[in-house]
Design a protein that fits this description.
single chain; 79 residues; mainly alpha; 2 domains; 4 helices; rod-shaped
Length: 79
């Protein structure tokens, strides 16, 4: 739940959009927020890589082991 201060700040942003100078700062804030949202989405899409830079080698090794055993990863069967 958002606090009353957050709602107040949102109202100030909307009302200040009419001012050309304030609109520049609103756009800058939106760009900064967009970068943060993209970073968070990337962490959700690939959580292993977000914790370790060398994870691609690890995931490739795991995939190769599954591939060597001819596991069908799309069905619910054991190797």
């Amino acid at each position: 739940m958002e606090s009353k201060v957050d709602w107040f700040l949102k109202a100030v942003r909307v009302s200040s959009a009419w001012n050309p100078i304030a609109a520049i700062f609103l756009q800058l804030q939106s760009e900064i927020d967009g970068v943060e949202i993209n970073r968070r989405l990337n962490n959700l899409e690939d959580p292993i890589s977000s914790h370790c830079e060398n994870s691609s080698k690890l995931t490739k090794a795991i995939y190769d082991q599954f591939k060597d055993k001819n596991c069908n990863l799309t069905q619910d069967r054991r190797c």
